[in-house]
């Protein structure tokens, strides 16, 4: 095959890679993107999008189950049934539409797409194993956007009944008993969903708390809901391996036990994909297990950039997308540097958690003198009308000039508030800016304004 | 106490309007008799307007760059005694004051009274509708008067600059390090207005990561005074005249030898000879044989005025721009006289002291950039003349004389002609005659 020469080669068509390629195409750069699987990466194929689809199915099913037992709002239905096979087909349809959309956008922006596995030969040359043979590509600039994969535990190798999040999204039926190793956001999102779908769920976590990224105030409503769903959360417990009947563990006081389970879901994090694409042929500095990058996403080799999960925490699609956009602009000659204030993180548990900027403890540790207050949804009219009174919005601000440093919320549907939280932080809002903005009534967003007012000592509705 | 109105005097023959280029006396200033009040520029020269009386300036008719009609009021002085304001002109005063506040008023239209009003054409020639005085300025132009950066650092050590993504992008595009910019907003937030203030204060820009930086600013330079005149003249020349440019190489070796000897033996007090006086004399001699070259073409009347007198314009670069002082009657001047006249004129032009007479009346023009002259130029004819002779740089080149190469001092003449009235043949004859004269300089002086 003739060698392809291009201005920019992107390796990996996940959210970071495809956004970089689209932006580069918009800027008129001759761009090639290589992907071994379907476009869209983990996010569209086996991550964010399919998991939200399954969570939606679980929420709807739980609602119906709840109504079957009679409900205070006066809705009563017959006992619902779940056909998870059908749910998965529906979910796959959404994934296909989105990944097809990405391919269309790449084409529209004149990005050449190559399907195959890329391996670096040197800092300017990559070989791609395609169905038709080996394609050599030479590029002036290369973006490594290889992403990450679920971490496998050596004593719980994936296969059979030991599954990762990828397989959990393609089950034919809800497991009767599901044991989940790891109480991070992926484990809890899926655990809550399967509990709602009728599985007997047990979560084991080596640490003494769930969702270690958030503070206790934020996780408490989630823990409460999990208890109500009958999820057994075991903290300070070590997973040891898989037995015939389920997951073998060692409890906090050293006792060996077995948790009955027909599926064991291992969600102990994701690791960056730094092997398998010829890193040995390059001289890339590392930052722990990640590729080391600077404030322009440059690696230690000139002309080679890295974005997304392979470059570190937080491993979030929207971080990768922003990095991809920035790098494309840098390669096009624009003066860009990573100057984002906040990357909001959303946890689609029940209730949802959203956090943008600094938590109160983080702000104090960073040396700020802070003021912080929260406003409960129990005092929010809209939340009451949605039977979603658990949770609150909390604001952390500097005591001296009222600059907002962080905003968190936990509650039903609060993921959509991530937009306004991110905007406030990115615009450099002070408490008075939020307090002085009219928030439409009746919405959950009013709790945001009230939290600002309360932090200023003048809440109106509490 | 009375008022004395000074009108724009007739500043030159046939001049109907002049551009105000400078106010020397501000409103409120006390001026003595004969003190210069203002300077106006006509097609040819800058004219200073002195005060005929002693008094205090209380009104000015226009701002710098406006064009005033001859005879229109220029300035009003408060004077001891009755002044020169008649009762009928009071009406005019009111009218003119209004005229200035809502600038575009059509010349000759407008005000009542005997003077016919002030004819001010605003530079931009705005449409009349825009004169509505109550129209608010566009939002973008509103200045919130951001507090200038106080002395010292704009924020505490280690504090990150606070700005919206749009402001950050604008700063990045302009190569501004936001850490240096003072933010006037809540919590020290940097707004677009703060960034404007930083730009205006001439704040440093720097590239991030050592790269090149895009600059997006645009500097608007108003075309005023001499620059505007040059623009107008060049546009007229290029749009009306069908230029033909003819380039010929001149062997200056003999002339340079002669020039060296003359300079070495010149009398004290005489200006040093450049090539220019020789060329002027050669032109005077050549046009005597070809009077159609030394001419003014009035294309509207369809007449070519062939002049007997050879008035050579000598293009000179001045701090304000290109000017063309004129050496009159070169046919009647000897070499030394030509040299002295050129020296005197170019100094007058450079210092802005050239009179209207010294800047007009040329019938043919020479343009020379000396060492900067390049090898070929395409000179633009000084309209309404029909010929211009351009002098290129002189250099020593090896020339083949039939037997061997010898070093010769060689220079090109790039000359343009108005092809509407000068045929290519005649242009060639003229330049070949100049070549003959310059290469055999004795011929310049022998009839």
Question: How are the elements arranged and paired?
Answer:
The complex is a heterodimer of chains A (462) and B (447).
Chain A: E1 4-11, H1 15-26, E2 31-35, H2 41-46, H3 48-68, H4 84-108, E3 112-115, E4 117-122, E5 125-130, E6 133-144, E7 148-150, E8 162-163, H5 165-168, E9 177-181, H6 185-196, E10 200-205, H7 216-228, E11 232-235, E12 238-242, E13 246-250, E14 256-260, E15 263-266, E16 270-272, E17 286-287, E18 290-291, E19 304-306, H8 317-331, E20 345-347, E21 352-357, H9 360-365, E22 370-376, H10 381-385, E23 392-398, E24 404-411, H11 418-426, H12 431-435, H13 446-455
Parallel strand pairs in A: 1-2, 1-6, 2-3, 6-19, 8-15, 9-10, 9-15, 10-11
Antiparallel strand pairs in A: 4-5, 5-6, 7-16, 12-13, 13-14, 17-18, 20-21, 21-24, 22-23, 23-24
Helix pairs in contact in A: 1-8, 3-4, 3-6
Chain B: E1 2-7, E2 17-23, E3 30-31, E4 36-41, E5 46-50, E6 55-60, E7 67-69, E8 73-79, H1 88-101, E9 162-163, H2 165-174, E10 189-190, H3 192-200, H4 225-240, E11 243-251, H5 253-264, H6 275-289, E12 295-298, E13 303-306, E14 312-314, E15 316-318, E16 321-323, E17 326-327, H7 335-350, E18 364-368, E19 387-400, E20 405-418, H8 424-439, H9 442-445
Parallel strand pairs in B: 9-10, 14-18, 18-19
Antiparallel strand pairs in B: 1-8, 2-4, 2-7, 3-6, 4-5, 6-8, 11-20, 12-13, 14-17, 15-16, 19-20
Helix pairs in contact in B: 6-7, 6-8
Q: What labels describe this entry?
A:
heterodimer; A: 462 residues; alpha/beta; FAD/NAD(P)-binding domain; Enolase-like, domain 1; 7-stranded mixed beta sheet; 13 helices; 24 strands; 31% helix; B: 447 residues; alpha+beta; OB fold (Dihydrolipoamide Acetyltransferase, E2P); Dihydrolipoamide Transferase; Chloramphenicol Acetyltransferase; 6-stranded mixed beta sheet; 24% strand
Summarize the structure.
The complex is a heterodimer of chains A (462) and B (447). Chain A is α/β, with parallel strands linked by helices.
């Amino acid at each position: 095959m003739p060698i392809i020469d291009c201005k920019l080669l992107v390796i990996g068509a996940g959210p970071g890679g495809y956004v970089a390629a689209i932006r580069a195409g918009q800027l008129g750069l001759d761009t090639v993107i290589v992907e071994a699987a379907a476009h869209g990466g983990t996010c569209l194929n086996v991550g964010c999008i399919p998991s939200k689809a399954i969570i939606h199915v679980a929420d709807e099913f739980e609602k119906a189950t709840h109504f079957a037992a009679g409900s205070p709002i006066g809705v009563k239905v017959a006992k619902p049934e779940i056909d998870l096979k059908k749910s998965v087909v529906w979910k796959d349809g959404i994934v296909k539409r989105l990944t097809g959309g990405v391919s269309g956008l790449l084409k529209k922006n004149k990005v050449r797409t190559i399907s195959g596995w890329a391996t670096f030969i040197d800092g300017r040359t990559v070989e791609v194993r395609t169905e038709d043979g080996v394609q050599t590509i030479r590029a002036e600039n290369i973006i490594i956007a290889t992403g990450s994969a679920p971490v496998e535990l050596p004593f719980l190798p994936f296969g059979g009944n030991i599954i990762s999040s990828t397989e959990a999204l393609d089950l034919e039926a809800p497991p009767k008993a599901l044991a989940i190793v790891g109480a991070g956001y992926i484990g809890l999102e899926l655990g809550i969903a399967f509990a709602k779908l009728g599985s007997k769920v047990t979560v084991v976590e080596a640490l003494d708390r769930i969702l270690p990224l958030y503070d206790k105030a934020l996780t408490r409503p989630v823990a409460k809901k999990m208890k109500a769903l009958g999820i057994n959360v075991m903290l300070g417990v070590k997973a040891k391996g898989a037995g015939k009947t389920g997951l073998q563990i060692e409890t906090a006081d050293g006792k060996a036990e077995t948790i009955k389970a027909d599926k064991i879901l291992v969600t102990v994090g994701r690791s960056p994909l730094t092997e398998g694409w010829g890193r040995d042929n390059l001289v890339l500095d590392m930052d722990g297990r990640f590729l080391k990058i600077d404030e322009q996403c440059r690696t230690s080799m000139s002309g080679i950039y890295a974005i997304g999960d392979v470059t570190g925490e937080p491993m979030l699609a929207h971080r990768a997308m922003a990095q991809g956009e920035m790098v494309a602009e840098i390669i096009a000659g624009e003066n860009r540097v990573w100057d984002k204030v906040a990357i909001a993180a959303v946890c689609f548990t029940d209730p949802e958690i959203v956090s943008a900027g600094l938590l109160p403890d983080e702000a104090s540790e960073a040396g700020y003198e802070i003021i912080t207050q929260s406003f409960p949804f129990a005092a929010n009219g809209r939340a009451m009308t949605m039977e979603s009174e658990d949770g609150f919005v909390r604001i952390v601000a500097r005591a001296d000039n009222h600059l907002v440093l962080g905003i968190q919320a936990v509650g039903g549907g609060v993921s959509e508030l991530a937009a306004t939280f991110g905007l406030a932080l990115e615009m450099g809002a002070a408490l008075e800016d939020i307090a002085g903005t009219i928030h439409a009534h009746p919405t959950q967003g009013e709790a945001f304004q009230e939290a600002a007012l309360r932090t200023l000592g003048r809440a109106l509705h509490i | 106490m009375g008022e004395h109105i000074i009108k724009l005097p007739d500043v030159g023959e046939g001049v109907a309007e002049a551009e105000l280029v400078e106010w020397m006396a501000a409103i409120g200033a006390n001026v003595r008799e004969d003190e210069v009040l203002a300077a106006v520029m006509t097609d040819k020269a800058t004219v200073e307007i002195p005060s005929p009386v002693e008094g205090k300036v209380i009104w000015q008719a226009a701002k710098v760059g406006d064009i005033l009609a001859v005879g229109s009021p220029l300035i009003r002085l408060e004077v001891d005694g009755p002044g020169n304001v008649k009762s009928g002109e009071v009406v005019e005063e009111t009218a003119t004051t209004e005229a200035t506040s809502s600038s575009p008023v059509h010349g000759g239209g407008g005000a009542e009274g005997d003077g016919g009003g002030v004819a001010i054409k605003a530079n931009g020639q705005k449409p009349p509708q825009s004169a509505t005085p109550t129209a608010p300025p566009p939002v973008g132009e509103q200045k919130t008067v951001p507090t200038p950066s106080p002395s010292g650092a704009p924020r505490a050590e280690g504090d990150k600059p606070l700005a919206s993504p749009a402001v950050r992008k604008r700063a990045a595009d302009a190569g501004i390090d936001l850490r240096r910019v003072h933010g006037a907003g809540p919590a020290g937030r940097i707004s677009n207005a703060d960034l404007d203030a930083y730009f205006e204060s001439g704040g440093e820009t720097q590239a991030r990561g050592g790269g090149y930086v895009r600059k997006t600013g645009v500097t608007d330079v108003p075309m005023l005074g001499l620059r505007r005149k040059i623009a107008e003249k060049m546009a007229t020349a290029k749009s009306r005249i069908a230029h033909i440019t003819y380039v010929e190489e001149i062997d200056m070796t003999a002339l340079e030898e002669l020039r060296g000897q003359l300079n070495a033996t010149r009398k004290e007090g005489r200006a040093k000879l450049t090539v220019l006086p020789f060329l002027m004399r050669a032109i005077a001699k050549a046009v005597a044989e070809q009077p159609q070259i030394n001419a003014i073409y009035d294309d509207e009347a369809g007449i070519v005025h062939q002049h007997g007198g050879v008035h050579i314009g000598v293009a000179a670069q001045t701090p304000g721009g290109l000017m063309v002082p004129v050496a009159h009657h070169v046919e009647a001047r000897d070499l030394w006289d030509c040299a002295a006249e050129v020296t005197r004129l170019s100094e007058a032009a450079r210092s802005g002291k050239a009179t209207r007479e010294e800047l007009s009346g040329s019938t043919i023009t020479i343009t020379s950039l000396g060492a900067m002259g390049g090898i070929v130029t395409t000179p633009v004819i000084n309209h309404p003349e029909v010929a211009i002779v351009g002098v290129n740089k002189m250099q020593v080149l090896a020339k083949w004389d039939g037997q061997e190469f010898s070093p010769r001092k060689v220079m090109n003449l790039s000359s343009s002609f108005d092809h509407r009235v000068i045929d290519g043949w005649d242009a060639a004859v003229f330049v070949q005659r100049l070549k003959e004269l310059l290469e055999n300089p004795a011929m310049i002086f022998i009839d």
